[in-house]
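Z., the sequence and structure:
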Amino acid sequence: MTALHAEWIKTRTLRSQIGALCAIPLTTVAFSALAGLDTEGADADPLFSAFFGVNFGQIAAIAFGTTALSSEFHGGALRVSLSAVPRRGRWFAAKLAMVALPVLLVGLATGLATAAMGSALLPTAPSAAESVRGALGCAVYLTLMALLAAGLTAVLRSGVATLSILIPLLLIVSFVVGDLSGNAADFLPDRAGQVVLHSTWDGILNAWTGLAVALLWVVAAVTAGAWRLHRRDA
């Protein structure tokens, strides 16, 4: 509990953390609203039209997860943290918890607001069951992206390097590869995780297996980050 409390204090006192957290609902809702005003193609997949802004909200979630870890690798902050919590595994678990919990709560509120707005704006609104699935999926997906960023930052020990990899991957590479590689691209973390935000999906994954694939990416990144943390001096 001491480790969790210490990480919570860091989270709520770092402006970059608070800014990234606030940006998640702002960007998601704003871009979803813009997508809702453009009704062309909305009938084909009303759920994804409602949650289109997640494509941009995930960047804020990634920034939140990245800054949570990258702040520890400047000015000897990690040494101070480990002097208070000498067991590196316990410290890393507390750090990841303080990445996941705020994003999960904010993501759930964001998902509910986005679903409500989609129902109001779209000419063909998602069904109630789809809206609930989308809201829950939005929260889980954003949390997974934040944790993926945190794990990768622990590996690279650099926020700049992490953002330089993840942002092009999510905004450019995934779409290009997706157009060229068929179903293979469905196993990229963002494409797999976002299946839950589609009313229909032609790929080989469904909503929950897609989230499971995204979770596997997170587990790999976090495991590699934990290994790196134990192998490298603070």
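The chain has ten helices and no strands. The two ends are 22 Å apart (CA to CA).

Let me know what you think.
H.
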